[in-house]
Each structure stands twice: as C-alpha cells, then as structure tokens.
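Supplementary Note 3. Input sequence used for the single-chain structure prediction.
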Amino acid sequence: MKKNLRQLLRLYLIIDLNLCGNAGLLETVRQAISGGVTMVQLRHKDGTTDDRVKMAMSLKPILANSGIPLIINDDIEAAVAVNAAGAHVGQNDMLPHEAKRLLGPDRILGLSCETEDHIQLLNLDSVDYIGIGPVFSTDSKSDHAQPIGFDGLAKLINLSPVPTVAIGGLKAIHMNRVFAAGADGVAVISAICGQPDPAASARAFFKVNER
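The predicted structure, written as discrete structure tokens, is reproduced below.
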C-alpha cells in the first residue's frame, strides 16, 4: 500500500461524524467511495478511543476489498486496535517517532505541517506523508493556523521529502492549482462530507485536467 501512497492521496476524505448530516457516517462513506475517493480518514475529536474503535469497525466492511486505506486521526491506540492502515497526527499530538513505534513499520503515518520549520524537522523514519495547509480558511477546524494560499503551498511542498496532500477549504475547482503547486492530492472534509450528494461531490474532483 505504501508503494502506491502518492496515488492513494489523490482524493483524501476526512470524515467527521458531526458534519455528515442526514446521510450519516456509513452512507456518506459508501457514496464517497462510489464517487472515487482514494483514502478515508476517521476524525472524531469529541469521542473516546472506544467510540473511534466502534466507528472504525463499522467502516471496515465498507472499505473491505476496495484498496482504500482507513486512517485514524490522533488515536494510535484505536488505529492499532482495529488494524487500520495507519494514523494521522498533528503538531500538538503524539510525537511522530513515538506514534510510528506504536503503529509499527508497515502502517502509514501522516503528519500535519503548517510551516517550513515543521517540514525541516521531519523524521523520515517516522513520517510517510504530510498534510500541508490550511490553504484557505475553513470552518471544519476552528483553531487552524493562518492560511498559506497556493504560493505558500508550493513553497512547503518544494521542501518536503515525502508525499504531500493539500488541505484547508479546498474544493473541486481548486484541483488543478493543487496539482500545479506539486501536491500529490487534496484532503477534504466539507466539500464531500455533509453535501447533498457525496458521490457527485467526489466525482467533481476528477473532472479536471490530469497533470
């Protein structure tokens, strides 16, 4: 799976139970998969590890045989418990080398990076990809850093020794600019999660010129 990581990052859905709307968690993911998402991250900041384990276990049958990795946000214990493909941590979460030690070498670990310093301090033995942003301001995360725009995105991508995914207020209309900046893909929440038709919303990201 790691061999195809750049391809798997192309359309990275971060699923948030609080934003799923009437469709709910499972139906949103089902529809998003049919629309072409390539990776799914479970983010449930308000829940416990037990809550995240239960949610992840309910997602696994939907993702089974799809080739789509399940990543758990900021809960290494839950990721290990459900045998997820990996986990994602932020700058203020568990240290990447410790997270990787607990996950094991075969699982994917992603790290959020917002500045040059964050990237220059990367431990390449720990981190498999980085999420760079926010590109734009977003309501999906109230405490996000100052938006970096596409120029800032390109600058940080140029410094990265590992695959990159752009995040922060991005929509399908931004896909060409994300690729032009050098990113391997885009991570989205509200552009798919909570939309009336998650499948159509996902497909819209593929209606752009390929690199």
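Strands lie at 11-16, 39-43, 70-73, 86-89, 108-113, 129-132, 164-167, 185-188. The chain is about 35% helix and 20% strand.
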